[in-house]
Amino acid sequence: MLPRWSDDFSVRHQIIDEQHQKLFALAHRAYKAANGHVAVNDIKNILIEFFDYMKTHFKDEEEYMKAIGFPQLEEH
Known about the structure:
Layout: H1 14-34, H2 40-68
C-alpha cells in the first residue's frame, strides 16, 4: 500500500507542499486503477495526468531550490 500524505513530508513551502499532496493523490488514483477493474484507456489517462503533473512539479521544485540555494540541488 502507498503512504498517505502527512505533515512529516512537508517542506514548509505552501506551493510545493500542495503539489506534493496532489502527487500523492495521483499516485493513489493510479495504484487504485492498476489494481482494480478499470478500462485500459482510463489507466492511460491517469498516468498521462500523473506524469504531466510531475514535470510541472519538478520544474517548480527545482526553481525553488535554486532560489533558496539548496546545497544538494544536483543530487536531488
